[in-house]
Amino acid sequence: MLNFNLQFPTRIHFGQGKIEELGKEILQYGTRVLMVYGGGSIKRNGLYDQVVQVFNNNGIYYKELSGVQSNPRISSVRDGVAICKEHNIQLVLAVGGGSSIDCAKIIAAGAKYEGDAWDFFTRKARINEALPLGTILTLAATGSEMNGNAVISNEATLQKKGTGSSYLIPQFSILDPVYTYTVPSEQTAAGTADIMSHVFEQYFSPTPGTFIQDRLAEAMLKTCIHYAPIAIAEPINYEARANLMWTGCLALNGLLSAGKRTDWATHDIEHELSALYDITHGLGLAILTPYWMLHVLDEQTAVRLAEYARQVWGISENDEMTAARAGIKKTAAFFRSLGLAGSLKEIGVENKSLQEMAEKAASSRGLGAFKTLHYQDVLEILQAAYEGAEL
Amino acid sequence: MLNFNLQFPTRIHFGQGKIEELGKEILQYGTRVLMVYGGGSIKRNGLYDQVVQVFNNNGIYYKELSGVQSNPRISSVRDGVAICKEHNIQLVLAVGGGSSIDCAKIIAAGAKYEGDAWDFFTRKARINEALPLGTILTLAATGSEMNGNAVISNEATLQKKGTGSSYLIPQFSILDPVYTYTVPSEQTAAGTADIMSHVFEQYFSPTPGTFIQDRLAEAMLKTCIHYAPIAIAEPINYEARANLMWTGCLALNGLLSAGKRTDWATHDIEHELSALYDITHGLGLAILTPYWMLHVLDEQTAVRLAEYARQVWGISENDEMTAARAGIKKTAAFFRSLGLAGSLKEIGVENKSLQEMAEKAASSRGLGAFKTLHYQDVLEILQAAYEGAEL
């Protein structure tokens, strides 16, 4: 186990009706809010009206930034920053999934920065301050509601990049599982794949002696596997929605990575995919993950992949390689069972872009920590995922 | 799953050498510190000297309160409060296990209160303020290093009572597993029993639909079961000490209780035991827990106790009652295997005090939440535990 520093400062308000905390939370920081959200779903399910009522009841002045897209764009960030500066905004409130939250985070940082917010992603500037941030979560997926990370796409350069800072950690997050009742089944499936991928990226690590972290990771994977099919079959099942929502939050708040090196190769590859094709992040991850697992499987990594197969999927094979392969197959079959595509070609990715994506993803120092990947590795993973090759 | 609010504000510095963070942390709050510790163990293992060196290197003025006992007493608290008031102390630093930390917490609150600190336990006063608090942990057990709870004994009234407040949550905690290398095997065993008991009190709950919390709890139990024997056999095994230390911290920081009703009957009974006999808390818990499990086992609770047996102990019995009983036997056998006593009479408890303890523990509204206990239940548990009856 490696040394680590850890703190979870976000105040979590979890459960049905927790929007009752919103007014009190906002007023700690001021009375001028920028509300950031995506499409019309929060208008259809009544959440928009609830939030506006809280604003009105508490004398809160608000501006809106709507239309944040599923791979949130730097142009939306710039629009939000301009509103903050013009209207002397005191708190940014994201209402939505990870896209709205990530967009709101960079708006909050950009509002306190003279230059252009894309500078945070090119490492031209560090985030040294940010407006306070609150979130109301409507999708169990990214975990952005309890961490300081954000991923933004630059539509001009076709880049999708991440950054992180303790200044981006939300002050509070309201997690009401009822707000996820209206999430369509394909988004529920992709969100679950996203959560599971976050766990995988931290679970598959070269750091030895992280027994507690690994058992916690398996607990989260089992929860996803148990509840995703239930949430898809019964969208208004509170228990399923609540377990997925809380697991998504815990999966990326620092608990699983504390004391470990983490991988993130699959995420890095997927970012190139969704930068080029604007596909749903979780769907890309679901397709890539089993092929990443198969590619990194060797004599050394088999022990760990076999442990995954046994602990999470109940595989009873004694041979490490055989057990590992069985776990990989189970993983792919599970994502398929949720209705997710099993190959990149099914979702419109073109064969001719595989090389470009592999080049962009594979940096000179190599990708990942569980097993280091280079250009040829990434290309092979993309090719197998493109074809939906036999696992 | 129930609604919950949750925040983990403590900054955790985990790992070998993390005392390097101490000076910087203290100086955020001031330059006048009260250092609270127990006996001579931190002098023998060099930690005392390290802490004093940090004080000296950073120009920090300090006073000491030493001799805090394993069931910390209100008289120690009063001594500490007096020092804080007289010397204008700005931060209380606990160096030790849960006893030193709990004592330091109430000192920190008492320093900001006009009356007597025992008022916080009789509910005569609420904790509305406290000095900032830091901890350097030397024992994996109570989890006090990351929560706002404290248990104090009143030697005059033979009472042992708990209280809690967000003002008592440490600002920072330094968790260096190396400091637990010198913990003797009986303390390692009792500390592990304490951690496992914390998990049990939250795992065995009447709240349905808490799948993620329950799998996380099992992860912690498995970690204790895996590493306690290793830490006892090889006291300087870093991996074992690190896993136990981090698990002890996570087991009582709010993660497992979020969204659930919790039980705490076994703790309430044990508090009467150690109030009267001043025995090690974890040892008392280890003896009582299997008898509590057996006593609450019925048609309704069997499902849950069987789940515990299967998930944690790998019991493959199909029948719920049979599986549950097998899990209870395994629990008792495990504690015995760590060298812990299996009956109250072995550790000097007298038969004649069982009634008194049962009366004190059993409040009029009943004890526990998984299954409510009354006087007769508590007495039966104590009698069976006294004899070390067949499980």
Secondary structure topology:
The structure is a homodimer of 391-residue chains.
Chain A: E1 4-14, H1 22-27, E2 32-37, H2 41-44, H3 47-57, E3 61-65, H4 74-87, E4 91-96, H5 98-110, E5 133-137, E6 149-154, E7 159-164, E8 172-175, H6 185-203, H7 211-233, H8 238-250, H9 265-277, H10 281-296, H11 302-313, H12 320-337, H13 354-361, H14 375-387
Parallel strand pairs in A: 1-8, 2-3, 2-4, 4-5, 5-8
Antiparallel strand pairs in A: 6-7
Helix pairs in contact in A: 4-5, 6-7, 6-10, 7-8, 7-11, 9-10, 9-13, 10-12, 10-14, 11-12, 13-14
Strand coverage percent of chain A: 5-15%
Classified by CATH, the class of the largest domain in chain A is Mainly Alpha
CATH architectural grouping of the largest domain in chain A: Up-down Bundle
- What would you call the structural class of chain A? alpha/beta
Instruction: Give the termini separation of chain A.
Output: 32 Å
What kind of sheet is the major sheet of chain A? 6 strands, parallel
Number of helical segments with 4 or more residues of chain A: 14
Tell me the greatest interface. Answer: A-B, 42 and 42 residues
Secondary-structure element order of chain A, as H and E? EHEHHEHEHEEEEHHHHHHHHH
**Overall strand count of chain A:** 8
Number of folding domains of chain A? 2
- How much is the radius of gyration of chain A in Å? 20 Å
Globally, the shape of chain A reads globular
Strands side by side in the biggest sheet of chain A: 1-8-5-4-2-3
Mean of all residue-level pLDDT scores of chain A: 96
The CATH superfamily of the largest domain in chain A bears the name Dehydroquinate synthase-like - alpha domain
| Helical content of chain A (DSSP H or I, runs of 4+) | 40-55%
CATH topology of the largest domain in chain A: Dehydroquinate synthase-like, alpha domain
Query: What is the multimeric organization of the chains shown?
Result: homodimer
* Uncertain stretches of 5 or more adjacent residues of chain A: none
